Amino acid sequence: MSLLQRLYAPQAQEPGKGRLASAILLTVLAAIAILVPLLNLTVPADSAFHVPTYLVSLLGKYLCFAMLALSIDLIWGFCGILSLGHGAFFALGGYAMGMYMMRQIGDRGVYGNAELPDFMVFLNWKELPWYWYGFDFFPFAVVMALFVPGLLAFVFGWLTFRSRVSGVYLSIITQAMTYALMLAFFRNDMGFGGNNGLTDFKDLLGFDLQSDNTRAVLLASTCVALAGCYLMCRAIVASKLGRLIAAIRDDEARVRFLGYRVENFKLFVFVLSAMIAGLAGALYVPQVGIINPGEFAPANSIEAVIWVAIGGRGTLYGAIAGGVLVNYAKTVLTGVIPEVWLFALGGMFIAVTLFFPKGLVGSLPAAIDWVKRRIGKRNPPASSPLAEEPGQ
Amino acid sequence: MNVTGRASYSESQLYVDGVTVSFDGFKALNNLSFVVEPGEMRAIIGPNGAGKTTMMDVITGKTKPDEGRVIFKGDIDLGKRDEAAVVALGIGRKFQRPSVFENHSVFDNLELAIKSDRSTFACLFDRLDADRKSKIESTLERIGLAGERDQMAGKLSHGQKQWLEIGMLLVQDPELLFLDEPVAGMTDAETEATVELLRDLRGERSIVVVEHDMAFVHALGVKVTVLHEGSVLAEGSMDQVQNDPHVIEVYLGR
């Protein structure tokens, strides 16, 4: 099997597994949500247990990436749709939240214009474009962070799935989609800040974004959102619909001839997945403080797919583990030897695809078995001395 | 050979009327006509390229006919419907290559196949009720896979996969069943068991079996339609067909 074929070959997880992993994941998320803010806010800065603020935001960022990975695993691992454009949905969600925070700046911008964001004043715009209406209002921005990615996914999916576009062709079109959006958002007259994007945010719902308290709450919210999305995805893949989308992944024609409209099922998971990605983007932007068209870069979407592949697709929790671990590795490696990172990422991707198609979490049980056997060999059980003797 | 007469038209299970399908000028089906009666079991044979698969594609909504009509139960035109709509009308199809869901258990394969609301949201909230469950269990008995109930379908033998796929059609409760080479690649014992299974189904619903294996068709002992170059070459009992000079010429004459 070629590398490419492997990417489209199903990686099914065995049913029943995952209860333990789910329990571990939810415990870890709860611990992060509670302990990290506590250690950041209440422990004095000179204590060994103090968690510095930059770490709080870094963790929050990783968890947003993990949520993006989760959304990709739902459609790739379970429905067999390899989207190489999920970064677009993430970025759109991010822009929706960014627009709200731009409006929150009010007259505190460089130009002190209460009506218009700085970049619009700079471009000599006289009034707010209609598509910025409503973004003064937080619930509206949250709804848009879900609705816009969902709508794009719906239109995109409706056109492609009905035409029965799949496999590599679909992946390439998703790349084109995110690339086209990147070019569009780079343009100043789109009204989203051009190549600078949206930044210089001051506060969210009136809370100062620079304060430790706000950052702690954002991290805890990300944990809760990720846990919620994970449980929702779990419920979906455990339902009859979940078994059906896995069946579509394995044999689409058979599902069609059982009388199901395959395109509707694909559309449902694709839209849902895009909305999760949008939510991840909306949580990401306040924690990193900027959103620009670079987030639409095709390479970003590919990177997110690599997290899922490395973590272990078709498991949900594997994607989350991959999103966090690979990004942690990225932080460490780019800090030490930045020029190596892309090679390391590419190398890991190829190695995992070829040798560990089940990814980290899928290969873990085998690895534990192997270690157990090694230990067993070193200390053979006393009860069976004959077993070790070569038969003569 | 044309099918005429209003009686067979309105009371038929399936009425294929002058269907022509061309692919880039090549006529895969050429004015094909035949009738399947309610409850009838029919065997369709023919050399490679005779149009057997295209015929099934047209009937099950995958391919649209260029000319002619396919009428189900006397008044339903299948030509305008897609695969899902055709299945909803009660037509099931087994593929040549056994296609079961290898990463699902045998039971789950039947659960996905069983007659139920096919809409997306219904599937999201669906819970298997007792009726459907007992129907799946009895079908498992019938296709001889009760012992493999919880096994992954991918672990079944080739013959067992074929039976599972037949079972997946049975739980859909179709009125008309298309079986494409149900005994291809089976051992003699498995073939025999399949003949038993199909004989058992006889009369319950209309079944069209497409086969290469002459011994198997003989063992079924049903009316045979011979296809050649996209149209019907001969029709009758296996003995009649085997002695037909046209059939002998096509099968042996070259």
Low-confidence stretches of chain A: 384-392
Oligomer: heterodimer
Looking at this structure, what is the CATH superfamily of the largest domain in chain B? P-loop containing nucleotide triphosphate hydrolases
Strand order of the largest sheet of chain B: 6-7-8-3-9-10
Greatest interface: A-B, 25 and 29 residues
CATH architecture heading of the largest domain in chain B: 3-Layer(aba) Sandwich
Low-confidence stretches of chain B: 1-7
- Share of helical residues of chain B: 25-40%
Q: Reading side by side through the largest sheet of chain A, how are the strands ordered?
A: 1-2
Strand content of chain B: 15-25%
Mean pLDDT of chain A: 90
Query: Any idea of the CATH topology of the largest domain in chain B?
Result: Rossmann fold
Topology of helices and strands:
The complex is a heterodimer of chains A (392) and B (254).
Chain A: H1 3-8, H2 19-41, H3 53-79, H4 86-105, H5 118-122, H6 138-162, H7 167-186, E1 203-204, E2 207-208, H8 212-238, H9 240-250, H10 252-256, H11 262-288, H12 298-311, H13 317-336, H14 341-355, H15 359-378, H16 385-388
Antiparallel strand pairs in A: 1-2
Helix pairs in contact in A: 2-8, 3-8, 3-11, 3-12, 3-13, 4-6, 4-11, 6-11, 8-9, 8-11, 9-11, 12-13, 12-14, 12-15, 13-15
Chain B: H1 6-11, E1 14-23, E2 26-36, E3 41-45, H2 52-59, E4 67-72, E5 76-77, H3 83-89, E6 91-94, H4 106-113, H5 120-125, H6 130-142, H7 158-170, E7 176-180, H8 188-201, E8 206-210, H9 214-220, E9 223-228, E10 231-236, H10 238-242, H11 245-252
Parallel strand pairs in B: 3-8, 3-9, 6-7, 7-8
Antiparallel strand pairs in B: 1-2, 1-4, 4-5, 9-10
Helix pairs in contact in B: 4-7
